[in-house]
UniProtKB/TrEMBL annotation:
Coiled coil: none
Pfam families: AAT (PF03417)
Organism: Nonomuraea turkmeniaca
The protein's name: Peptidase C45
The Peptidase C45 hydrolase domain, residue ranges: 118-295
Length: 350
């Protein structure tokens, strides 16, 4: 089992978006429908969702006009309105606006130098077909490869400048319904523009946001977890070459406003699980690192999540992917599913 892939041939943002939208039309439309169902179950009306999508598009155009153009191109190719593709890109912001809650989410480990990285990516099981792997060239000679969702501009990824990012959602008391720049666009600009951790931090700090996320930026010998919230940006450096993050704030000034762990306290257990396995997570073997992540609830930390089908769709969580960055090669290693299913043969190199 592998995720679908797409390699863009266009350099112009609108043309690149239209090419992607045309080739991945069914998946993008299905992803929008899946999110529309999720928002409805969580309590949002279609009118609210449209208003949030339009505002996200406006804020994106102010902060990164070229990315707003790419969103418009995707919409044209997929037969959608630009605000609808903006909804897919702003799904984190819309969920924050609804104040959606539930158990689940991602765990990330980075060990320097190398780096040796791995993360689980958990999401709602009815959206398990949304992910794709996308290669694009935002400018000649600079290649970005990202694990993302159909219609979203980026998520976890690497670039050929030697930088990669991991991605975990957060919640903060400052999150609001006044939609700001989508955090997925911040990830994309970092992959497009940054070659150093400091440059990645500068991109994140420049974005006016309404929802929270942590982007862990990594190079061969440097890393930082960049905690983004409407209240500000916190930067967590490695300790003795180790940097691990789950779904709660670690920066002292931001941790006081923590919201995610109020509803999902397992984030603390998951982080402790990673800290207890630093030795196993420090090896060169990406399969061994993934297996070191393995832990199932309820008797242990639920790093590897499986959905409870008795729950409504907004409360069902699944580890959809396990991902390691290969920065020297500028590639991703992606396994479809959780650590409990990983073998050397199940990795998809992209």
């Amino acid at each position: 089992m592998t995720f679908p892939t797409f390699t863009s041939t266009q350099l112009d943002p609108r043309a690149r978006g239209k090419e992607l939208g045309t080739h991945r039309r069914k998946a993008i439309v299905a992803n929008l429908a899946g999110y529309s169902d999720l928002f409805a179950v969580a309590g949002a009306t279609p009118a609210q969702v449209r208003a949030w999508g339009e505002r996200a598009l406006d804020r994106s155009a102010d902060w990164a006009p070229q990315l707003a153009e790419e969103i418009a191109g995707i919409a044209a190719g997929a037969g959608l309105e630009p605000w609808q593709v903006a909804v897919v890109n702003a799904r984190t912001e819309i969920l924050a606006a609804i104040d959606a809650t539930g158990e689940g989410e991602c765990s990330t480990s980075v060990v320097l130098p190398g780096p040796r990285t791995v993360q689980t990516w958990d999401w709602h099981d009815h959206l398990r077909d949304a992910p794709m792997l996308w290669e694009l060239e935002p400018r000649p000679g600079h290649v970005v490869r990202t694990f993302t969702e159909a219609g979203a501009l980026a998520k976890i990824g690497v670039n050929t400048a030697g930088l990669g990012i991991h991605f975990n959602i957060l919640r903060h008391e400052s999150d609001s319904a006044e939609l700001g720049v989508p955090v997925h666009l911040i990830a994309r600009r970092i992959l497009e523009e940054a070659a150093t951790v400091e440059e990645a931090i500068a991109v994140a700090m420049s974005a006016p946001v309404s929802a929270s996320t942590v982007i862990t930026a990594v190079t061969s010998d440097d890393a930082a977890s960049i905690e983004i919230s409407p209240a500000g940006v916190g930067v967590i450096p490695p300790e003795q070459g180790v940097l691990q993050h789950c779904n709660h704030f670690l920066a002292p000034g931001l941790a006081e406003g923590e919201r995610h762990a109020t509803d999902r306290p397992s984030t603390y257990d998951r982080l402790q699980h990673l800290r207890d396995r630093v030795e196993e997570l420090s090896g060169d073997d990406h399969t061994a690192r993934a297996l070191a992540m393995l832990s199932h609830g309820p008797d242990a930390a639920p790093v590897c999540a499986h959905p409870d089908l008795t729950q409504p769709i907004n409360q069902r969580w699944e580890t959809v992917a396990t991902i390691a960055l290969d920065l020297p090669a500028g590639r991703l290693r992606v396994h479809q599913g959780g650590p409990c299913q990983v073998t050397e043969e199940t990795w998809q190199v992209f």
